Amino acid sequence: METPVVDRALALQQRNRKVRLVLLAILVANWVVAAAKLVFGLVSQSAAVTADGLHSFIDGGSNVLGLVAMGVASRPADADHPYGHGKFEALASLGIGAMIGIGMLELGRMALDSILNDKHPQVTGTMAGVMAFTLVVNVAVTRVERHFGNKYKSTLLLADASHTMSDVWVTLAVLGSLLLVWLGFPRADGFIALGVMVFVAWVAYGIVRQAVGILSDTARLDPVEVARQTMGVTGVRSCRDVRSRGMEESVYVDLKIEVDPNLSTAQAHEVADRVERTLQDTYPQVVDVVVHVEPARSVPLRTERA
């Protein structure tokens, strides 16, 4: 049984290296976009464009955070972390949500300042062109991150893709505000920035909720379905107390089974091995199964929900 475990560990390390390469490429794209938005936002004194640049800069910062976290998450299990370091990826996702929240507060401050002080951004064709270019880049980045996030089942990449998608909507809103300012509605800059703030807050909530679910050991598999698969294994008389936790790509399961009390220790162990193989074949994301074997009672137990 050691070879499959080693193979899974190597596959997980290779997957983490690939996730880091994707994050590094996205980091470069995000900071190019952020620099363009910040420069033109400050030059034109547009709260919405500057806030959008800040949002893109936070995208880059979240990529740096993700790279550091993935470097830790890819380490194999050790004495202090017997279940591995995978949750550091979820911690990074939580950090992304926090960074979005910080950006949201700054966005609100700038928007109110624009509205209350009636600041008028200077709209130019060059600025609109730059914003349109960054929009195309952000759409491409989002598609790439979501593709590789689904391919590698990476919570971090999917969270960052959601963050970058929020930047797409922000940029669309900013382009709308520039059009309204150009048409003679200067306060649109601040009001659209406030609308963007609400949207960014919703994105942050979704990312934080997902990360908290992982860190709080939310069940990853349906216990009834796991018990059904287990009951199909020859020699298992009952299955109960099914529990699962972990991340999408690395799930840990433990459960209790009852077997014929007349089985020898070796025979009971073989039944447990068959249960482990069955669950890992059924759920490729399962990296470890702990099976507690007990002698069957005189009255068979019904399968219970965990």
Quick structural overview:
This protein has helices spanning 2-44, 47-73, 87-116, 125-152, 155-182, 188-215, 223-231, 265-282, and strands at residues 238-247, 250-259, 286-295. The protein is mainly alpha-helical.
Q: What overall form do the CA principal axes indicate?
A: elongated
For the sheet with most strands, the description reads: 3 strands, mixed
Number of domains: 2
User: How large a portion of the residues is in β-strands, by DSSP E?
Assistant: 5-15%
Helix content percent band: 55-70%
Going by helix content, strand content and strand pairing, the class is mainly alpha
CATH topology of the largest domain: Alpha-lytic protease prodomain-like
- What is the architecture of the largest domain at the second tier of CATH? Up-down Bundle
The span between the termini is 27 Å
The residue ranges in which pLDDT falls below 50 over 5 or more consecutive positions are none
CATH class division of the largest domain:
Mainly Alpha
Please state the CA-atom Rg, rounded to the nearest Å. 25 Å
Q: How is the largest sheet built, in terms of strand order?
A: 1-2-3
